[in-house]
Amino acid sequence: MPTAFLEIVELPDGRIALRRAEDEETLVTLEFSADAREFLQGQHVEVAKAMLSAGLQMAGRLVEGELPESDGPRVLH
C-alpha cells in the first residue's frame, strides 16, 4: 500500500473506520456491541484507536520483514 495519510473516523452508524484521508473508501472497520460500549463507558473510540494503531504497527513490521511469515495454520486468540 502506498504511503498515505490515514484517518480514524466514527461513521454515522457508530462504527469506527480507518481510511485514507483523501478517500472515502474504508480500509478497516471496527464495530462495538452495545454491551462493549457500555463496558467501555464511552471510551470505545479510544480503544478503537489503540487497536488500529497496534494493527498498523504490526503491518509495518511485516512489510519491513521483521516478522516471519507462516505457511501453516494460524491460531487466533
Blueprint of the fold:
Layout: E1 6-10, E2 16-20, E3 26-30, H1 34-39, H2 44-63
Antiparallel strand pairs: 1-2, 2-3
What would you say about this model in short?
This protein has helices at residues 34-39, 44-63, and strands at 6-10, 16-20, 26-30. By secondary structure, it is α+β, with helices and mostly antiparallel strands.
Tell me what you see in this structure.
- The protein has helices at residues 34-39, 44-63; strands at residues 6-10, 16-20, 26-30.
- The chain has 77 residues and is of the alpha+beta class.
- It has one domain.
- A three-stranded antiparallel sheet has the order 1-2-3, with helices on one face.
- Strand 1 and strand 2 (16-20) form a beta hairpin.
- The radius of gyration is 15 Å and the shape is globular.
- The two termini are 27 Å apart.
- Compute the separation of the termini in Å: 27 Å
Number of helices: 2
Strand content: 15-25%
Order of strands across the widest beta sheet? 1-2-3
Class based on secondary structure composition and strand pairing: alpha+beta
- Give the overall form: globular
Given as residue ranges, the uncertain stretches (5+ residues, pLDDT < 50) are none
Q: How many strands in all?
A: 3
The major beta sheet can be summarized as: 3 strands, antiparallel
**Which value, in Å, is the CA radius of gyration?**
15 Å
Mean pLDDT: 87
Please tell me the total number of domains: 1
* Helix percent band: 25-40%
Order of helical and strand elements? EEEHH
